């Protein structure tokens, strides 16, 4: 067997090189998805671990990790220094440490409430089991725990509400956008309405929606209370416009050659839309959906404040009305929570866009 001048088997060298190439191919394939989820800084770390030059990857690592972390650090430092110097009727603006402490207390309150609920159901089960053993099954009663919602419960309520409003908006906006993109007459009829209603504030919609829902949704169910439905409809009315506009633009931008071929083949309308229009316009449709979800999440907080839907908006309003020494810190916790959840929702929509449009390009 031939040996190299260094005493290493050439087959071994080729095998190592093949493994190295496979590792880099896998890293390059995963780079797009890591970027989608905001984890682009992991790529240079993986490349360095796979044997790439640290010097060649350091610039990308600095840009994707060190620079954002520096910005966050500067913000937190400025917050810690400047916040105590601003005095309000509730005291000085809390700094990062006080806000972190309040966030931990909100989590502890959630855990304590869950323990109370578990104890309540355990006592109820024991009581009912004893009644059944004594032959008093007619006295068995099952009740739901009626404790106050915790901060985590309010986050879940807000997510349910924005999801409901976003689904409503998508159901309305996508078909109208397709019709508007395909027909100049429909586009001409819808365009004035879009220009009139798109700038309307959620605070203007809320009284109208409240009155309509109160008049028509009389027998409200526990799964969908009136306050949640009101907030969801307000979210729908304010967030459907980006999806409608981008869908119409995407449909109108479909390659004319594709539409001409479809006419020659005499494709039925539903098949033309599903096989030609939708696949070609998906990137712009998803762009509209991302914008709509962002608008809906932003609008939701104001809607919940006034409709008293037990979500993050109501939490902020209640703390503002409460006026305790910890209220400011809790409000800042809510502000940061709203921002983080908004970022995660955008990343989720971007991941869906990348999956359905076969593109990881921003």
What does this structure look like?
Its main location: membrane. The chain is mainly alpha-helical. It folds into three domains: 75 residues, no CATH class; 49 residues; 207 residues, MetI-like fold. The chain is built from twelve helices and two strands. The protein has a two-stranded antiparallel sheet. β1 and β2 form a beta hairpin. The model has no long low-confidence stretch (mean pLDDT 86).
Describe this structure in a few short sentences.
One of its GO terms (cellular component) is plasma membrane. With 362 residues, the chain is mainly α.
Name its key features.
362 residues; mainly alpha; MetI-like fold; two-stranded antiparallel ribbon; 2 strands; globular
Which helices and strands, and how do they pair?
Layout: H1 10-36, H2 42-49, H3 54-82, E1 87-88, E2 91-92, H4 96-133, H5 151-182, H6 184-197, H7 202-216, H8 226-252, H9 256-265, H10 269-307, H11 312-322, H12 327-357
Antiparallel strand pairs: 1-2
Helix pairs in contact: 1-2, 2-3, 4-12, 5-6, 5-8, 5-10, 5-11, 7-8, 7-10, 8-10, 10-11, 10-12, 11-12
Terminal residue distance:
51 Å
The best one-word shape is globular
The CATH superfamily of the largest domain appears as: MetI-like
Briefly note the structural class of the backbone: mainly alpha
Structural domain count: 3
Order of helices and strands: HHHEEHHHHHHHHH
In terms of per-residue confidence, which ranges show pLDDT below 50 for 5 or more consecutive residues? none
Major beta sheet, strand line-up: 1-2
Supply the number of helical segments: 12
What characterizes the major β-sheet?
2 strands, antiparallel
- Number of strand segments: 2
Keywords: Cell membrane, Membrane, Transmembrane, Transmembrane helix, Transport
InterPro entries: MetI-like (IPR000515), MetI-like_sf (IPR035906)
Pfam family, one: BPD_transp_1
Protein name: Nitrate ABC transporter permease
